[in-house]
């Protein structure tokens, strides 16, 4: 069976085929030593050269940094909400059984399903084995992808799926819920009793596997993921961080209220305040179940989109606050300029790389404190415009390429 991945191979080889052939022979020997059958290797491990498109996608840096609202509005729209509600009704019996067993609400399972594959419509068109072999050979994250490749071969060897049907994303994420092979090995469940964990074509298997994963990494059936909140005008913005946990009672004492202005519950549960679009955007108090969602995908925006979709599926209203925040997306070049200007002013962003990581956010926060601004650590076009008005000698600034070069040399 021809796949998109194998069709790309002949014209997009990225390495000397002799080198790749030797590398693949080494993989075969290690797989045999791990107990994977020769029949599985002969059937599945047939790639002639790495797939350049897969490697390109792994190396590609984003051209812009999306805003929270743009991210949410694309993923949690009315069409997806209505489709999700219809599927909740359609699969009510199955989802009720899964929820009863694993204590994970059906609406969250459907939310993950919707965001990962648009309810199974887009599960990926690459051969998982070919994609993982390409990435394992590439070298940038070879150890990680080599481990995933061996686990994918074990899944085939155990008979859960055929090589032809083992399709997924360019990164090797598979099935209705986009499990990586290692996640499959630890958490996949045979939900329909046929002896296989078919997360590609069996919804009982896909839902049960997702629920098993969430349950085993700490989902608490008696707790919320979090809630939208309103912060007082005198709020200390530097306290908004996933690392800063306080009891709900303590946040109440600081003036935090529910989004509709009502008091927070009288609770000793511990939560953190998140500002995904800075102090002018919405604010959320998140609890331990939010951490569980973050274990699925480390993006705060992704985790909030899962929570939001799950709430909307239940009939909760739209989020109420923060729509007047600066919603302009930042290009990578703008982020590079922001980092350079912070560095020139004495605030170290931890490298000029165009990535809004923790060091850059800390540098922004320090700059904001020095200027008496709300210290939310949030990068925005508005902040860049302010930094651009600062008096910085041109000798302190170079092209992004020059600055990156100096950072690399250092």
What does this structure look like?
By secondary structure, the chain is α+β, with helices and mostly antiparallel strands. It has three domains: 4-61 and 122-216, Orthogonal Bundle (Helicase, Ruva Protein, domain 3); 226-313, no CATH class; 330-409, Muramoyl-pentapeptide Carboxypeptidase, domain 1. It contains 19 helices and nine strands. The chain has helices spanning 4-8, 17-33, 38-44, 52-59, 68-75, 78-90, 92-102, 106-117, 128-138, 142-157, 181-187, 203-216, 248-253, 288-296, 300-313, 332-344, 358-370, 381-389, 400-409; strands spanning 64-65, 126-127, 167-168, 226-230, 246-247, 257-258, 270-274, 283-286, 330-331. The strands form three sheets. The chain has a five-stranded antiparallel sheet with strand order 5-7-8-4-6. Strands 1-9 form a two-stranded antiparallel sheet. β7 and β8 form a beta hairpin. α4 crosses α9 (128-138), α8 crosses α15 and α9 (128-138) packs antiparallel against α10. The protein starts with a helix and ends with a helix. Mean pLDDT is 91; it is low at 1-15 and 398-410.
In short:
This protein is of the alpha+beta class and about 400 residues long. The protein has helices at about 5-10, 15-35, 40-45, 50-60, 70-75, 80-90, 90-100, 105-115, 130-140, 140-155, 180-185, 205-215, 250-255, 290-295, 300-315, 330-345, 360-370, 380-390, 400-410; strands at about 65, 125, 165-170, 225-230, 245, 255-260, 270-275, 285, 330.
């Amino acid at each position: 069976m021809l796949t998109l991945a194998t069709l790309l191979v002949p014209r997009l080889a990225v390495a000397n085929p002799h080198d790749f052939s030797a590398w693949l022979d080494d993989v075969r020997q290690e797989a045999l030593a791990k107990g994977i059958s020769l029949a599985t290797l002969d059937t599945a491990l047939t790639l002639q050269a790495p797939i350049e498109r897969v490697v390109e996608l792994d190396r590609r840096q984003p051209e812009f940094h999306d805003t929270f609202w743009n991210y949410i509005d694309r993923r949690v729209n009315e069409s997806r909400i209505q489709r999700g509600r219809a599927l909740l009704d359609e699969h009510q019996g199955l989802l009720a059984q899964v929820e009863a067993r694993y204590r994970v609400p059906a609406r969250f399972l459907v939310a993950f399903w919707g965001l990962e594959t648009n309810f199974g419509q887009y599960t990926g068109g690459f051969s998982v084995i070919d994609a993982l072999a390409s990435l394992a050979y590439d070298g940038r994250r070879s150890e990680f992808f080599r481990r995933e490749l061996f686990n994918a071969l074990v899944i085939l060897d155990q008979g859960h799926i055929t090589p032809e049907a083992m399709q997924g994303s360019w990164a090797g994420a598979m099935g209705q819920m986009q499990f990586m092979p290692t996640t499959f090995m630890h958490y996949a469940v045979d939900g329909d009793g046929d002896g296989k964990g078919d997360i590609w074509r069996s919804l009982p298997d896909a839902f049960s596997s997702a629920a098993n994963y969430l349950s085993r990494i700490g989902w608490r059936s008696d707790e919320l993921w979090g809630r939208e909140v309103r912060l007082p005008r005198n709020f200390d913005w530097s306290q908004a961080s996933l690392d800063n946990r306080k009891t709900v009672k303590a946040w109440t004492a600081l003036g935090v209220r529910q989004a509709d202005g009502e008091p927070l519950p009288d609770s000793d549960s511990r939560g953190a305040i998140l500002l995904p679009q800075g102090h002018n955007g919405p604010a959320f108090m998140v609890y331990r179940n939010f951490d569980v969602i973050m274990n699925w995908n480390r993006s705060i925006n992704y985790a909030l989109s899962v929570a939001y979709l799950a709430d909307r599926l239940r009939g909760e209203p739209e989020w109420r606050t923060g729509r007047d925040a600066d919603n302009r997306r930042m290009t990578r070049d703008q982020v590079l300029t922001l980092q350079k200007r912070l560095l020139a002013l004495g605030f170290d962003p931890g490298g000029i790389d165009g990535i809004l990581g923790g060091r850059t956010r800390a540098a922004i926060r320090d700059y904001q404190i020095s200027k008496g601004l709300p210290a939310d650590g949030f990068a925005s076009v508005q902040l860049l415009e302010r930094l651009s008005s600062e008096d910085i000698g041109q000798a302190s600034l170079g092209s992004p390429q020059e600055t990156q070069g100096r950072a690399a040399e250092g």
